[in-house]
Every structure is written in structure tokens, then in C-alpha cells.
């Protein structure tokens, strides 16, 4: 169970457990959940013929209106689900979704129409009792369907660490199962999985906790769960559960689940599910990128490709993002040749597409240029940067010229490095033109561009324009709140070009 205080506005573990239940209950029309569950159960009980016979019987005869009867029977279902709910093992919960959803729906269909009071008894240590005492008016959720009785149970005096729950249930929260349960079960009520409770009071003398069910519209409950619910909601369950796991710091559970799904081939031949599996590996890789674990990120992006390759040709445009991400991770680790290889494959995926994503083509071209710049192969870098410029100039950028500014700056630096000051000057001018057209241009970038223009003009012997640009560079840099070493450098550049202009004028007399 999870308990949160009435003052809590965030509780990651409470929210995780609640949203995990909600996600497990999500309908997934893309999957054959029953087949997937039975395959998993047969593997689980591969060496137990008695349970395998029960699984065969379930496959042949099960109907949803018998979910309660099967759940209360001592068989493979109750055993696996008991462990799944107790340990919250993500693979068990994911694979058992078919039956969990069937049981949930049957309880809903015959749920109580009027408020009732029911009772249940649970083993609980001293710490749990104290936690209830400390969180009166807080919320409680249980990890499983909760069995209960209509009559208060008798406490065993030998078991002082038991808690009796007296629960005031609103309508539609539980089902009377006396006529539906198997002979293995003695409980008369089954509370649905998605029920939420508030702690009303506790009687420490009798170890009785008084709870009441609350609506999912409860403001405190919504405050705790709605922000993350909005963040993770997806159309396909595997993608939603992956986002939930990663947003709540369950990276290894997500990694384990996605690998299990790939290995058991339960998504085989279903492009939608395989694409979602690939997307889950992207999420895992992105989490590694945030943690600066480039090698593990590459591993996850390769797994994304692995999923795509099961239903798409190797150069399909959908694969380009995975190839590009792998290239970026190689680049971060200074594996330049591998970086170029995968960025090139990403680029080819788009160029061969019937309807290329031109933004992606520009991005991948720019990424390749970055590797060449690191290798000091400026001529090759310029080739890819110019391609990116042509594409960006053709695209509608909704008035945002910053990508073009960045490309012009890179091209000008490349020309400068190969000693072509004239071409560098042309691109510095293009950079400045776009910067001045920005709404509220910042002084520091303008100062840098004017400084670069000054050095280019000076290299070409045009000292008058070099002085003008150096003066503007210093002027803009003085507008920057924090003065730094750049100001001294720019002032020094100004003095140098002034002296050269003066000397040129003297020599021309």
C-alpha cells in the first residue's frame, strides 16, 4: 500500500503506483493480450504439468463473466498475480494485463449500487500503524484488488500486529462475490483495483483504521497525480508505461521490460507495437544522454534500430532519427569516423524517402559538418553547411532565422580557418544582417560579429571598415552587464586597426 499525507502536493511513489495501475488497466487494441498472457504463463510453469493443464483449460473455457471465479481459485492466475501485486514486478503486471482488465470489468459490471461498510484485516508492523496515525486525512491506495467481508473479522490475540480496516465504500467500488467465488475463497467482497481511500481515524486500542473511499475527482488526489498523468499519456500502452517508469526513476525496470518484449517476440509482425518499442528505447537512450552516459545511450539507440529492422527496410526514413542519435553519441565520445558513418546513413534515409523531412536533412547535414570541423576538414564541412543553408532558406521558419545565423557563423569560421578571408567576410555580413533583423537583438552576439568583421576587413587590408566594425564591437560589448576579458581584447583590436589605418594613410601621402 501507499500512504500520503494530507499536506503532500507531490509524492512520487504514491503517484507511480497509482498511474501504474491506471496504465495496466488501459485498453490496448493493438495487442492480443490473452495470447500474450497465456504464452507468458506457460513459460512460467513450463515444468509444472498441473498448472499447464489449468492454463489449457483457461484458454478453452474462460469468459470474462468468470473472472472472479478464476481469481479466487487456487491456480496459476492467483499465484502469479499475488506475486505481481506484492512485488510490483513490472514484467508480471504487464504480461497479466488481460486478466487484470477482465477482473476489473467484471467487478465494475456488478459493483455495489449503494454505499456499504466492509472490513478487511492485514498484517502490519508497528511502523505501518504509526504511519496511519501520522497521516489522518491523507490518502491510501492498495497495490491489488482488496478482498473484504461484510462482517467485522475476529482478531487473533496471538497476532497483535494486525490492522483491521473498517471501510466506508461509496457506490461502484466493490462487488459482492459470494455467489461467484470459488470454493477456495472465504471472502464475500472484492474491492476494485482503482479504488482510492482517505484515512478518517485510527483506534490504536483495537488497531482499527477507519477509511472512506474517495472519487478520482478528489482535489488532493488530482493535485498529486494529474501533472504526471498528462506527461505520460500515450496511445500505446508500452510507450505510456515506459514514460511512467522513466519519469519516476525506474530506468532499469523499463530497460528490463523492453528487452523482455523483444526477446519473447510478443510484438512480432505488429508494426505499431514494434514502432512503440523502438520509441521506448529512444526514451531510454535520451535518459542516458541526460546522465552523460553516451555508451549506454548508443546501446539503446541500437536497440531502437533492432526493433525497427523487424518490420522496416534498413534505409526507411523512420530509422533516420536512430541513426542520427547513434552518430551523435559517437561524436560526443570523439569516435569521428563512426559518427560520420551513422550521420550519413541518417541523411541517406531521408534523401531516399518519397517525401523527405527537409528539416531533418538540414539537421543531419549540419551534424556531419560538426564532425568534419572537429577533424579540421573545413572544406568538407563547408560543403555540408552550404547544403543546410540552401534547405533552411527554402523552408518556412516562421520568422525564426536563428538556425540560419548559426549556419552562417559556422561557414564563416570554416572559411577563416582555411585562410579565405573574402568568403569569411561575406558570411560575417550575412550573419550581421540577420542578427540586426531579430527583435531586440542582444549586444554580445552583435559585438562578436562586428569583431569578426573587423578581423576579416583587416586581413583584406580594408582598415577603414575594420576600424568602424571594431568601434561598434567595443560599443556593443560595453552594453553587456558583466564586463569580461573580451572587452580588453576588442579594445586591443580597435587600437591595432587604427594604427594600421593611420600607417596606411601616412604611406599613401
Short structural description:
61% of the residues lie in helices and 9% in strands. It is of the alpha+beta class and 509 residues long. Keywords: Repeat, TPR repeat.
Would you give an account of this structure?
It contains 22 helices and 9 strands. The chain is an alpha+beta fold. The mean pLDDT is 90. It has helices at 12-24, 33-44, 49-61, 67-71, 76-87, 90-95, 97-109, 126-134, 219-232, 237-247, 251-264, 271-290, 294-308, 320-332, 336-351, 358-374, 378-394, 402-417, 421-437, 443-459, 463-477, 485-507, and strands at residues 2-4, 116-123, 139-141, 146-148, 162-169, 174-176, 189-191, 196-203, 208-214. Helix 9 (219-232) crosses helix 10 and helix 14 packs parallel to helix 16. Among the domains are: 110-217, Toxin ADP-ribosyltransferase, Chain A, domain 1 (Alpha-Beta Complex), CATH 3.90.176.10; 400-509, Serine Threonine Protein Phosphatase 5, Tetratricopeptide repeat, CATH 1.25.40.
Amino acid at each position: 500500500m501507499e500512504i500520503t499525507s494530507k499536506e503532500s502536493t507531490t509524492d512520487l511513489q504514491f503517484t507511480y503506483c497509482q498511474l501504474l495501475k491506471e496504465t495496466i488497466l488501459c485498453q490496448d487494441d493493438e495487442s492480443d493480450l490473452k495470447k500474450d498472457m497465456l504464452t507468458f504463463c506457460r513459460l512460467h510453469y513450463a515444468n509444472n504439468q498441473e498448472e499447464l493443464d489449468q492454463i489449457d483449460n483457461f484458454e478453452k473455457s474462460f469468459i470474462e463473466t468468470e473472472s472472479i471465479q478464476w481469481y479466487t481459485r487456487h491456480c496459476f492466475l492467483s499465484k502469479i498475480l499475488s506475486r505481481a501485486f506484492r512485488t510490483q514486478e513490472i514484467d508480471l503486471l504487464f504480461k497479466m494485463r488481460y486478466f487484470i482488465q477482465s477482473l476489473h470489468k467484471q467487478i465494475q459490471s456488478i459493483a455495489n449500487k449503494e454505499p456499504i461498510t466492509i472490513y478487511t484485516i492485514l498484517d502490519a508492523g508497528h511502523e505501518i500503524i504509526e504511519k496511519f496515525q501520522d497521516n489522518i486525512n491523507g490518502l491510501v491506495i492498495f497495490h491489488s484488488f482488496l478482498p473484504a467481508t461484510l462482517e467485522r473479522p475476529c482478531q487473533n490475540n496471538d497476532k497483535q500486529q494486525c490492522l483491521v480496516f473498517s471501510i466506508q465504500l461509496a457506490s461502484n467500488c466493490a462487488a459482492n462475490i459470494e455467489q461467484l467465488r470459488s470454493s477456495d475463497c472465504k471472502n464475500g467482497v472484492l474491492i476494485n483495483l482503482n479504488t482510492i481511500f482517505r484515512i478518517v481515524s485510527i483506534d490504536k486500542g483495537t488497531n482499527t483504521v477507519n477509511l472512506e473511499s474517495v472519487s478520482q475527482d478528489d482535489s488532493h488526489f488530482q493535485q498529486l497525480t494529474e501533472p504526471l498523468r498528462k506527461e505520460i499519456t500515450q496511445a500505446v500502452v508500452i510507450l505510456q508505461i515506459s514514460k511512467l517508469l522513466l519519469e519516476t526513476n525506474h530506468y532499469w525496470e523499463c530497460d528490463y521490460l523492453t528487452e523482455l518484449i523483444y526477446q519473447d517476440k510478443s510484438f512480432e509482425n505488429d508494426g505499431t507495437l514494434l514502432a512503440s518499442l523502438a520509441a521506448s528505447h529512444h526514451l531510454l537512450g535520451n535518459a542516458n544522454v541526460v546522465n552523460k552516459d553516451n555508451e549506454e545511450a548508443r546501446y539503446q539507440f541500437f536497440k531502437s534500430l533492432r526493433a525497427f529492422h523487424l518490420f522496416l527496410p534498413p534505409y526507411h526514413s523512420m530509422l533516420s532519427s536512430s541513426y542520427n542519435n547513434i552518430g551523435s553519441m559517437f561524436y560526443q565520445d570523439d569516435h569521428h569516423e563512426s559518427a560520420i558513418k551513422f550521420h550519413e546513413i541518417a541523411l541517406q534515409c531521408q534523401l531516399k524517402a518519397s517525401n523527405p523531412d527537409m528539416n531533418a536533412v538540414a539537421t543531419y547535414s549540419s551534424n556531419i559538418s560538426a564532425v568534419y570541423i572537429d577533424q579540421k576538414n573545413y572544406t568538407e564541412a563547408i560543403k555540408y553547411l552550404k547544403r543546410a543553408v540552401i534547405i533552411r532558406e527554402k523552408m518556412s521558419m516562421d520568422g525564426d532565422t536563428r538556425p540560419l545565423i548559426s549556419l552562417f557563423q559556422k561557414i564563416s569560421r570554416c572559411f577563416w580557418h582555411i585562410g579565405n578571408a573574402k568568403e569569411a567576410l561575406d558570411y560575417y555580413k550575412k550573419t550581421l544582417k540577420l542578427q540586426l533583423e531579430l527583435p531586440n537583438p542582444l549586444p554580445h552576439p552583435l559585438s562578436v560579429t562586428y569583431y569578426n568583421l573587423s578581423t576579416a576587413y583587416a586581413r583584406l587590408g580594408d582598415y577603414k571598415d575594420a576600424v568602424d566594425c571594431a568601434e561598434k564591437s567595443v560599443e556593443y560589448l560595453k552594453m553587456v552587464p558583466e564586463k569580461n576579458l573580451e572587452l580588453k581584447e576588442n579594445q586591443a583590436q580597435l587600437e591595432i586597426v587604427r594604427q594600421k589605418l593611420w600607417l596606411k594613410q601616412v604611406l599613401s601621402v
